[in-house]
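Molecular record:
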Amino acid sequence: MVREFEYQGETFRVTAHGVHGHEEIFIVHIEEDGVEGAEISIDRMTEENDTSAPIEAILVMLCDKLIPQSEIKVQNPAAPFAWREGNVVFQVHDGLQDTKHD
């Protein structure tokens, strides 16, 4: 899965693969100009974590570490986690790539 989300008024991108509770998860902060910034990751197969927690809870936990470590000045500290709807350029089904037509 590659998907964007917002937390504390900031945009992040998650790349995750694996089965629930045992994913490798990478997040990157997307800066205002669209440039990829600071990043953090967790391997839920080997690192201590609650393997029953939903991925959203793990993303919040990672953001709560990344924001102070990277001195990210958040836009809105009270803003909750929310998935973003992105611009889908390609849809993959049965291993074949299909260009989305508008």
Q: What stands out?
A: Residues 2-78 form one domain.
